[in-house]
Amino acid sequence: MTHAPLYIDYLNALDVEALALTDAEIIAAVEAGLSAQGRKQTEIEPRVHLMPKAGADGHFNVLRGAFRAPIERAGVKVIGDFVDNYKLGLPSEMGLLLLMDPMTGVPTAIVDGSHLTDMRTGAITAIGAKYLASKNSRVLGHIGARGTAYWNVRLLDSLFDFDEIRVHSRRPESREAFGAKLSADLGKKIVVTEDWQSCVEGADIVVEASRLNEPAPMLKTSWIKPGAFVVPYGTMSAVELSLTDIMSKLVVDDWGQCKGGPFGSLRAHVEAGKLSEETLHAEMGEIVAGLKPGREREDETILFWHRGLSLSDIALGHFMLEKAKTMGLGQRLRYA
Description:
This is Ornithine cyclodeaminase. By secondary structure, the protein is α/β, with parallel strands linked by helices.
């Protein structure tokens, strides 16, 4: 028995840039994916890590998931995370998303994973703030200037229109360039700080996306303003063990992948029992789906830890492909 020719839709990095996704489109696509997760219309497996070579300053993340509704897509993303890539003029995170038919396993699409990862990570941060930060948040403090950092700040500002945005990263040239790009794109002054404390102390929303080589308590619990919203998601922990003690609510994107594995900003907190099924308030999808409450009072200090969801990759990749069809972007590759 023969079958009709099979084709794979392919969006490369240039195609993804040409889509010119709006801030609202990115947030809406990822929020729809979170809502489906909250309603248990998805399957997700914890990410796994591949350490490719001794001496390589990085690793591969392999993320897997599937939707039953509202879209029928299964997907696997392989994304490298190599911190020294800037020396070669390359992003630290590069990879591909493979989408498949969940009923037959037929590959249906390949999407550049670099821009997608940056955008969906920023969207998760912004959606977390939408539901968990004070509506009156006026000051953002952001640590880190890697690819995802830009979309964190841009998408957060699209929702809050901050009065003050502070940024910091380890290398002066990196933070200055980051601040200049944000200032040009957002049309507002960006405060570039020389240290962590002046960046985050007293901020209404604090995002920690640092690039540490090993865990170190760089972000002090005492700097966190009561009622703040805090998002730590560095691969290596940069927070004190006491950070969770001041939180009214602890929220994660997926408990299954947060509770295991060698990496993550709250790994020590899980191992110490400070973050557990008993202390966890909710997964973000449950809040987006309306099954559990988000912020309920102005005085709540709330933490949101996201490891990164395959479901967000699939949801945003699906939206990119649908928009690409209307714009005539991308290529079709013969598969079989």
